[in-house]
Amino acid sequence: MKGQDVILGVLLEAPMSGYDIKHYFEKHFPDMFVASFGTIYPTLNRMEKEGLIEKEIVLQEGKPNKNIYHITEIGKEAFHAYIQSPIEPKTIKYDFMMRLVFGRYVSQQQLLEWLKQELHQLKEDLVKLRSQDEDPCDCYCDCQKLALRFGIAIQQAGVTELENIIDEFENFGQKETAF
Amino acid sequence: MKGQDVILGVLLEAPMSGYDIKHYFEKHFPDMFVASFGTIYPTLNRMEKEGLIEKEIVLQEGKPNKNIYHITEIGKEAFHAYIQSPIEPKTIKYDFMMRLVFGRYVSQQQLLEWLKQELHQLKEDLVKLRSQDEDPCDCYCDCQKLALRFGIAIQQAGVTELENIIDEFENFGQKETAF
DNA sequence: CTAGCCATGTAATCGGTTACATGATTGG
DNA sequence: CCAATCATGTAACCGATTACATGGCTAG
């Protein structure tokens, strides 16, 4: 699964600009895929050259012009190839968890700070997912609801466990650690 | 958090070869960081040139020689710089969840297969984490136990939710989908 | 006998990030 | 007035992956 595949997937739903695509990503699958403009624009340009998508320039008043991209037949075939390919194993880079593993090299204060910081982040993400889940505007298909539900379950578990950990931390052990 | 940081972290614990490092990664933090030999060996060579680590060649009988790497003072400083830097946001690439989102473009059979496949994978990972948790051989520090506990909680939530989803899937809805 | 483990490495490539550049409009 | 939003792009770089090459030992 690379940028191209996800872009094709969202363009299959509706024609969009690079700017729109990024916001779509952030709103609909923040916990599955991340892409910056630096990825999206060059990818779109390459895809256009390869004939996977077509550009339509939309002039706007008071705003910069938009490049709205439409998926082509070739693009649909490429998406199809992706969706039929074997699922790639998930890859995670979870710095917070790594810090926990190396936690003995920092102070208890630092560790507690990290825990609270991560809890805050997880809660924030959870709120986003939940609000998305309840939003009737976006008419998600059943599958998207499934994805959302799965994501929420995982996120919720993380929040709960972190809360427990922080609780124990504040009530018990203040053992020494050193670098 | 890049390969180098994690390598330094494990070398701080014990001198190791590239081969060992990979296995250490897989055993101790499968759900936090992934690295292939193609990443590890070039990284180790670069790190040696930069003086972060030192190579000790260990001759073995009946097996190829090992390059055991030791962390240097410069390496320790580099690790320290990492551990003091702000925590990087986690990045995930979760193809399975993406497939769920695009689930409407495949058959119900395909979707169900994907769900079962992922459940199988999650369960397998969970067993690994649990066995690691119970293993008294590895004397983990409290922090590592925390990381493990956190990982297990998340993994467990995923398994439970997937089981529910599959259950509903098999008992209800067989609506039509098309590409 | 053959598959798998042990063990290391390199060259080519890829996918993505960072930092920069541009520039108008709107809201506080 | 400043920050944010809208909107696109490029050049340099980086970290990592893939595919290949080597080769002996061990267990089924």
Automatic annotation (TrEMBL), chains A, B:
Keywords: Coiled coil
Segments forming a coiled coil: 105-132
Pfam entry (one): PadR
Stored Gene3D superfamilies: 6.10.140.1570, Winged helix-like DNA-binding domain superfamily/Winged helix DNA-binding domain
InterPro entries referenced in this protein's UniProt entry, alphabetically: Tscrpt_reg_PadR_N, WH-like_DNA-bd_sf, WH_DNA-bd_sf
Domain annotation Transcription regulator PadR N-terminal: ranges: 7-80
Protein's name in the database: Helix-turn-helix transcriptional regulator
Organism: Heliobacterium chlorum
